[in-house]
Amino acid sequence: RWLLRSPFDRNVPVQLELQELLLDHVFQRLGVASQGCVDHPIVLTEAVCNPLYSRQMMSELLFECYQVPKVSYGVDSLYSFYHNRRQNWPCSGLIISSGYQCTHVLPVLEGRLDAKNCKRINLGGCQAAVYLQRLLQLKYPGHFAAITLSRMEEILHEHSYIAEDYIEELQKWRSPEYYENNMHKMQLPFSNKLLGSTLTSEEKQERRQQQLRRLQELNARRREEKLQLDQERLDRLLYVQELLEDGQMDQFHKALVELNMDSAEELQSYINKLSLSVEQTKQKILQAEVNIEVDVVDSKPETPDLDPLGSEQSLEDVESINEFEPLFAEEQPEAEKPVAAVQPVFNLAEYHQLFLGTERIRAPEIVFQPSLIGEDQAGIAETMQYVLERYSKEQQAILVQNVFLTGGNTMYPGLKGRVQKELLEMRPFQSSFQVHLASSPVLDAWYGARDWAVEYMTREEGWITRKDYEEKGGEYLKEHCASNVYVPIRLPKQAPRSTETLAPSRVLTSSAGNPCEQA
């Protein structure tokens, strides 16, 4: 059996067996024995407007598997709102909750969530991290593998901020002085070890010899391929020349057209050039084979008398080696000097640095402008205005007096100022509003659930007991100040069977009594 989820909720376990393993782990970490039963009340958070089927599956797991005495469901952002309430705070407000996967705009009137006007934006910290990763991978393709998603999340938390005016902030970044003063550097891990720094002179000499042999073999292979191609073309030209000598003029002219030639003189010129090229290539191949044989003989430890031919070939071999000296100049052995570490021509640490410029504001800006990543959605400002316009002017004035920001994705510096600027632009002239940021946007949901559980532990409000579960079903929810709105399942009414069975009998009796009416 599977839990229902939306396509935007990634990394959410939906199999009951897996959820049972996760709950076992949680109870074990809390020091609660989960074998047999869990004799403790449970407070769980759920999504805004959570489907009844999902709540039914969770209630079934808690009551049937763990035998919990009672359970309560609430919304994390409402728990945070409950924890941050102060004296003289209004019970109404507009909550902006931005998390890892999505962002919610939740209106609260007189202490209760108005579920009909809640709106969701399918953008959060995960999408911002992925967008930042794409930007830096395009900027630094050499460090593609090192630019991981976890490092991008670290950059978002420590280096990013929300621009109060995005276009104006981009204009500031065009200034070299502003870029130099506000650009951040991030050091990537790297290794300072270089190959070849611990090789002896004998090992370097052996490596040079191996590389030289590989070059000679490569050149010999290329000469053989060139010789084969030239020989095939020469045979083709000689065949065309034989057509001319045999008097087959039609075939000869056709062959000239195929070869893109105009006359027999041009054909003879090409034949002469190819013949000369073939002969030169053959001589080079023979000369290279002789040089390799002489090189093998000279490499022996004991060399008796050398004939004049061998000495002449060895000199030519040395000259051929000197041709490749520029390729191995950096590995010249020095017998008298001690072997020193090879110094790099550039600073490896600076090469493995990421320079963060406009990326600091571009990544978190997607929650206000989703079009930056190609998403056809409204941003926070547009969604907030849309929600406010669904209320009367008096209710709008009440809601904007307590705009509350919570969630891990609201911890960017400058977010509060940006929301104030957006409210200033959409609200009437000289109207007042207040924006508050949660004291701990990440942990306030847990603190609020704890405060609510302590305050309502001895009350019946908000708690679903086992009796309620058995009588009203697993989807049942007892509402409280931090919960969703319970909308029971309404089944269509069915007509009673008595009327359906009596109606045909009446028709039959009446029709039987009057045959004319039946006709």
UniProtKB/TrEMBL annotation:
Region entry Disordered, spans: 497-519
Keyword DNA damage: yes
Transmembrane segments: none
InterPro entries: Actin, Actin_CS, ATPase_NBD
UniProt keyword annotations, A-Z: Coiled coil, DNA damage, DNA recombination, DNA repair, Nucleus, Transcription, Transcription regulation
Cellular compartment(s): Nucleus
Record's compositionally biased regions (Polar residues): 497-513
GO BP, sorted A to Z: DNA recombination; DNA repair; positive regulation of macromolecule metabolic process; positive regulation of nucleobase-containing compound metabolic process; regulation of chromosome organization; regulation of DNA metabolic process
Any Gene Ontology CC annotation: nucleus
Pfam families: Actin
Residue ranges of coiled coil: 201-235, 264-291
Similarity comment text for this entry: Belongs to the actin family. ARP5 subfamily.
UniProt cross-references to PANTHER family, sorted A to Z: ACTIN
Name of protein: Actin-related protein 5
Organism of provenance: Phaethon lepturus (White-tailed tropicbird)
